[in-house]
Amino acid sequence: MKKILTLLCLIISLTRAQDSLNCWLVGNWPFGLSYAVALDPARSLAFCGSGGGVYLLNVSNPAQPVKLSEAIRTRGVAFGLFYHSNRLFIAAGEAGLEIWDITDPANPSFSGRLNTPDYALGVAVSGNYACVADRRAGLRIIDVSNPQNPTEVGYYDTPDYALGVAVSGNYACVADGYAGLRIIDVSNPQNPTEVGYYDTPGYAEGVAVSGNYACVADGSRGLRTIDISNPQSPREVGFYDTSGQAHNVTLTGNYACVADDWEGLRIIDVSNPQDPTEVGYYNTPGLARGVAISGSYACVADDWEGLRVIDISNPQSPAEVGYYDTPDYAYGVAVSGNYACVADGYAGLRIIDVSNPQNPGEVGYYNTPDRAYGVVVSGNYACVADGYYGLRIVDVSNPQNPRGVGYYDTPGSARGVAVSGNYACVADLDSGLRIIDVSNPQNPGEVGYYDTPGRAYGVAVSGNYACVADNHEGLRIIDISNPQDPTEVGYYNTPGLARGVAVSGSYACVADGEAGLRIIDVSNPQDPTEVGYYNTPDYAYGVAVSDNYTCVAEGNAGLQIIQFYGTGVEERATLNAQRLTPGATVVRNLLMTDGQKSRGRLELLDITGRKVLELKPGANDVQHLVPGVYFVKENSETLRKVVITR
Fold first, then answer.
1. Cα distance between residue 390 and residue 413, in whole Å
2. How far apart are CA 273 and CA 567, in angstroms?
3. Cys-Cys link to 302, which of 189, 286, 471, 609 (CB 3.0-4.6 A)?
């Protein structure tokens, strides 16, 4: 399996060399799901990873965390955090390792970045070296003595996926997926060498070390305690099978605190490593992904539920004392003047001040009843495509205090919306394009529709034409000059999955899923052509245009601001790399497998390679999974990409 994925990694790495045409990044507001947390106990600071950004919080009063800054914005997604000597080290996914100076917590400053070869998921620092768990590229050792210029000095290619890392003395302990715990001698950073390993029974995702023992968060097989007193021959001495999916672990005294996915925070007594025992737990409201401890408090990175602060002074009865609610998954965006309105999933409508594109900030929000997927602004009103609750109309005349005024319940699931005059065009998924009269915002009503061939996720209107982002059917151009009888006149098959669209002049900007931002010339609606693109860091769901700036809603990487310079801009010399053409199967609630054609065990893997579901022949319920890219694995050979949507 790793050989297959290593080839995929190579193709993706080559593709990075040419990641844009006629476009480049200006700024971003990248906040989303929370995967990682780190602490500075001396200054009562918590660093909460949120999508592609990090919130700096003052937790001196754990019941009321206070945001000090949201200035840390990475070029990827913050999967791992490590704080050391006024510096925050971020394992930022495809953006590699980033280093930020936290001398002034209210004004953190960027120090340097190293783009690792694959996908940085975990980081630990010892002395002048950072050890990065870089998924398929194994363990990377980075010299960070000069934070402005981090340099790789050595690496060790672990046999599976390097997901987490901890350093103890001369040894780095790597949580290596299905290859378990790997112990790497890093005494010579230029030539790290594996000295021992223990193949845990599950999927090793996280690791913490105390004295002679390593505690491994082993996925569905819970917490494993490994004796590493002899690094050449580590051996398991005990385990505790948690009830969820053990993602991460940290140690405090005699206790291991495990981030256990839907089962929240589990507190395990490891004073006797041969017989670890659960003594308490707290069921967090989201999916517990990461955990850090300071004194009597555990801070949990809880996916869409942000940072949860748990009092563990009595391990038998942990209790939540405070939280900081980070945003959800950014699906859509619209821009009006100095404000960007972001359709942010279950976090509703978020209003972002983008008057300074290099440093946007949130000023207000409105919680819609379902999941906010798309948004457009017309005058004082924001029209929100709110999934199964249809079209919601929100008064945003006061950006600090938006309020709902009306709605129309479309027949499908409203995913995108555009307004032209008195009409709102709604991309209604399997129900195609719906045209709604919104002349009276308090009482909107449908006047016509067109059933597109794919699944309508996004829509934009220019003159007499509606441009529909129709998922695997690309961009569809619909004549709406007669709202009662809309008709298709042309289309362009984009390379990805068209999820959102905005029109500026002669150009349609398409949010094309894994294929990022695509710029399509629609001056001739019967024959649209691509003229530019930008490969965004996560998954492009929505897009809006204001002046020279294109704002892309990037799922877990929040809001990215791109500038399109028009055709004719020369690219810098790059590798003539083959582009990866997504050929994904798109599913919503059920993933179908063919039991007769399958030659063995089928598993569903997430983007990190972690098994999230054992698949059975026929229909498999995937409603509980976070939307995004997954892989179906058959035995250890065949991989098939699927995209789970809502």
1. 6
2. 64
3. 286
Whether residue 507 contacts residue 525, with contact meaning beta carbons closer than 8 Å, is answered with: no
Cα dist from 519 to 30, 144, 259, 413, 492, whole Å: 22, 39, 41, 26, 11
| DSSP 8-state symbol, 484 | T
For residue 489, what are its two tokens? 């006149």
Res. 554 pLDDT band, cuts 50 70 90: confident
In the numeric block, which tokens belong to residue 598?
A: 């399958």
Task: Give the C-alpha separation, 492 to 528, whole Å.
Answer: 6
Q: How far apart are CA 111 and CA 106, in angstroms?
A: 16
Q: How far is CA 169 from CA 23, 163, 172, 211, 511, in A?
A: 46, 20, 8, 10, 47
Type and span of the H or E element at 3: helix 2-16
Phi first, then psi: what are they for 424, rounded to 5°? -110, 125
Chain-centroid distance, C-alpha 99: 20
**What does the mean pLDDT of the chain come to?**
85
In this structure, the strands spanning 265-269 and 255-259 are antiparallel
**Segment 13-27 mean pLDDT:** 55
- DSSP letter at 13 equals H
Q: What span, in angstroms and rounded, lies between the C-alpha atoms of 326 and 16?
A: 29
pTM confidence score: 0.68
Question: Which amino acid makes up residue 262?
Answer: W
Whether 483 and 442 have beta carbons less than 8 Å apart is answered as no
Q: Which residue has the higher pLDDT, 231 or 355?
A: 231
Q: Write out the DSSP string of 387-451.
A: BTT-EEEEE-SSTTS-EEEEEE--SS-B-EEEEETTEEEEE-BTT-EEEEE-SSTTS-EEEEEE-
Q: Where in the chain is the domain with CATH 2.130.10.10?
A: 33-324, 332-564
Q: Determine contact, residues 604/616, Cβ cutoff 8 Å.
A: no
Instruction: Kindly state the tokens that stand for 567.
Output: 């055709």
3-state percent helix, strand, coil for the chain, nearest multiple of 5: 5, 50, 45
CATH architecture of the domain covering 332-564: 7 Propeller (2.130)
Which CATH number is 33-324 given? 2.130.10.10
Of the CA atoms within 13 Å of residue 131, those in its CB half-sphere come to: 31
Return d(Cα 523, Cα 350) in angstroms, integer.
Answer: 33
The continuous run of DSSP H or E covering 330 comes out as none
Question: pLDDT by residue (tens digit) across 614-632?
Answer: 888 777 888 777 777 777 8
Query: In this predicted structure, which of 467-476, 566-575, 602-611 has the lowest mean pLDDT?
Result: 566-575
Helix (H) or strand (E) holding 93: none
**Structure token pair of residue 399:** 């950006």
What is the distance between the alpha carbons of residues 472 and 457, in angstroms, rounded to a whole number? 10
Query: Tell me, what DSSP letter sits at residue 573?
Result: P
First to last CA, the chain: 29
Element (H, E) at 471: none
pLDDT tens by residue, 403-445: 999 999 999 999 988 898 999 999 999 999 999 999 999 999 9
| Burial of 66: CB neighbours in 10 Å, binned 0-12, 13-18, 19+ | exposed
